[in-house]
């Protein structure tokens, strides 16, 4: 156990569990007459709803049928708000068309003594509905004419970026294997993935033509967590390099970067792109400047005029190249919010996402790029190397909360539930925010967490699955890289 946990009880007493992030904007009585719609408010979208709620707005949730099981991905601190929504509407079950949905929303707003004025995408599955319904109603949002009715389409994104003269990936999309076989043979190794997805769902690096064909057919016939079954499959060049996240907010075509991250992604448990963490990148780092300017170009190419974007960019030997643009706030359940809050002195993408729609002066006050960091830290995504039918205790969470650098934890695993091996973002065993003035303290706490993962000390389970030995890639050990901020 890390020596930094010696004063466990004292440290835990002064550290709040992960429900400390809350809007800094006061509740305004005049906002109570305005209704804001959030489409598919799961993950960080739930925080978007909470932000509007705390500011005094009436919040209406629209749940799409495409949302599926993701509807249950609600951060517990948001789930605790019992009167969060003035109404919840299911589309298309309760309203079969966008016109019918608009009428349903207006009726719900009127019942809450409010007028519907804004619509925001909460989760990835809500982007198309929010943008198309917003355009239909003349609300602040993004244009959908000229083929832009589905900005989620990853093939479309790459085409528009290429048309703008920016580096993009080589790709081919189809719904039958013979259409892409020759392309795949020429590109090996290559990425096969759904046209619409999130959280690395369905994304696979295929090293042989047999593997590529098998995964292509699996995506065409299998139901994914996000995206319609039977939709086309995208075959893309395998980008080699370091993957970054560049988060933006945009109002009336003015693009502002709220944060830059670098992913720690590796192989584990048979999964090729397992998230181990996200490390903040200071904007005075030369690579950050290059990434920010390139990302602005991608946002412009997609004609994004209003809203938050979560942009994944690969820094290759040829410079930055788009992986994908997600037209909503950064996900991961908003577990990163306490860190960005402390690093920037109060600027977060969730707060700014609301300012886009309801507070122009507040948006104008946001700097074009994040200021010099006021704190140092990292995001740790917990990896489980064990699967079991039932979790009986979560000692790892308690040990993490006692660490000196502990700031917050999103507890994805609960007692009584089954435990899955982590192979993608959906199986993440929790997200931990570490913040401290000392880099040595951060490194020691991070190493202790990685050791607990490998030694299967995060959770007590019964019964244990037959194989409990941690599967770790060759380049991985308990001491994971940590960038000094």
Give a brief description.
By secondary structure, the protein is an alpha+beta fold. Helices cover 29% and strands 24% of the residues.
Question: Can you walk me through this structure?
Answer:
With 485 residues, this protein is α+β, with helices and mostly antiparallel strands. The protein has three domains: 235 residues, ATP-grasp fold, B domain (D-amino Acid Aminotransferase, Chain A, domain 1, 2-Layer Sandwich); 108 residues, 3-Layer(aba) Sandwich (Rossmann fold); 68 residues, ATP-grasp fold, A domain (Dna Ligase, domain 1), CATH 3.30.1490.20. The chain contains 14 helices and 18 strands. It has an eight-stranded antiparallel β-sheet with strand order 13-12-9-10-11-14-17-16, sandwiched between helices. The protein has a four-stranded parallel β-sheet with strand order 3-2-1-4, sandwiched between helices. A four-stranded antiparallel β-sheet has the order 5-8-6-7, with helices on both faces.
In DSSP terms (H or I, runs of 4 or more residues), the helix count works out at 14
End-to-end Cα distance: 26 Å
Helix content: 25-40%
Any low-confidence stretches, pLDDT <50, length ≥5? Answer: 1-20, 225-229, 471-485
Any idea what the radius of gyration is? 22 Å
Q: What do we call the CATH homologous superfamily of the largest domain?
A: ATP-grasp fold, B domain
- Computed structural class: alpha+beta
> What name is given to the CATH topology of the largest domain?
D-amino Acid Aminotransferase, Chain A, domain 1
Largest sheet: 8 strands, antiparallel
CATH architecture of the largest domain: 2-Layer Sandwich
Q: Domain count, please report it.
A: 3
Overall form? globular
Oligomeric status: single chain
The whole-number mean of residue pLDDT values reads 88
Assign the CATH class of the largest domain: Alpha Beta
> What percent strand?
15-25%
């Amino acid at each position: 156990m890390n020596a930094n946990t010696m004063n466990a009880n004292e440290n835990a007493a002064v550290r709040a569990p992960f429900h400390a992030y809350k809007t800094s904007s006061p509740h305004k009585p005049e906002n109570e007459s305005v209704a804001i719609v959030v489409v598919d408010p799961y993950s960080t979208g739930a925080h978007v709803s909470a932000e509007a709620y705390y500011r005094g707005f009436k919040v209406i949730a629209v749940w799409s049928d495409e949302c599926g099981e993701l509807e249950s991905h609600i951060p517990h601190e948001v789930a605790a708000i019992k009167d969060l929504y003035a109404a919840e509407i299911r589309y298309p079950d309760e309203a079969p068309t966008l016109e019918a949905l608009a009428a349903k929303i207006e009726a719900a707003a009127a019942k809450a003594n409010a007028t519907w004025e804004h619509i925001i995408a909460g989760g990835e599955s809500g982007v198309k509905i929010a943008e198309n319904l917003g355009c239909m109603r003349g609300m602040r949002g993004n244009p959908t004419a000229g083929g832009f009715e589905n900005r989620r389409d990853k093939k479309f994104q790459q085409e528009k970026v290429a048309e703008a003269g920016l580096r993009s990936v080589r790709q081919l999309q189809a719904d039958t294997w013979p259409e892409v076989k020759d392309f795949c043979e020429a590109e090996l190794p290559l990425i096969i993935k759904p046209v619409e997805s999130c959280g690395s769902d369905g994304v696979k690096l295929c090293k042989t033509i047999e593997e590529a064909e098998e995964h292509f057919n699996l995506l065409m016939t299998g139901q994914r967590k996000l995206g319609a079954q039977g939709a086309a499959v995208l075959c893309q060049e395998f980008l080699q390099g370091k993957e970054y996240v560049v988060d933006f907010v945009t109002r009336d075509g003015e693009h502002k970067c709220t944060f830059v991250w670098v992913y720690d992604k590796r192989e584990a448990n048979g999964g090729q792109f397992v998230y181990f963490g996200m490390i903040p990148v200071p904007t005075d780092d030369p690579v950050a400047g290059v990434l920010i300017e390139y990302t602005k170009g991608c946002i412009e190419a997609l004609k994004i005029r209003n809203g938050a974007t979560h942009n994944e960019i690969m820094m290759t030997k040829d410079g930055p190249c788009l992986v994908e643009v997600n037209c909503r706030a950064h996900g991961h359940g908003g577990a990163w919010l306490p860190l960005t809050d402390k690093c920037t002195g109060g600027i977060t993408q969730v707060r700014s996402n609301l300012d886009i729609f309801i507070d122009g002066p507040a948006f104008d006050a946001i700097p074009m790029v994040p200021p010099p960091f006021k704190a140092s830290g990292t995001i740790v995504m917990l990896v489980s190397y064990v699967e079991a039918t039932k979790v009986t205790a979560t000692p790892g969470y308690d040990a993490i909360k006692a660490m000196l650098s502990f700031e917050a934890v999103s507890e994805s695993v609960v007692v009584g539930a089954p435990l899955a091996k982590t192979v993608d973002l959906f199986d993440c065993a929790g997200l931990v925010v570490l913040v401290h003035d000392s880099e040595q303290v951060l490194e020691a706490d991070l190493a202790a967490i990685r050791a607990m993962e490998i030694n299967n000390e995060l959770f007590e389970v019964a019964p244990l699955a037959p194989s409990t030995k941690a599967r770790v890639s060759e380049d991985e050990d308990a001491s994971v890289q940590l960038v000094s901020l």
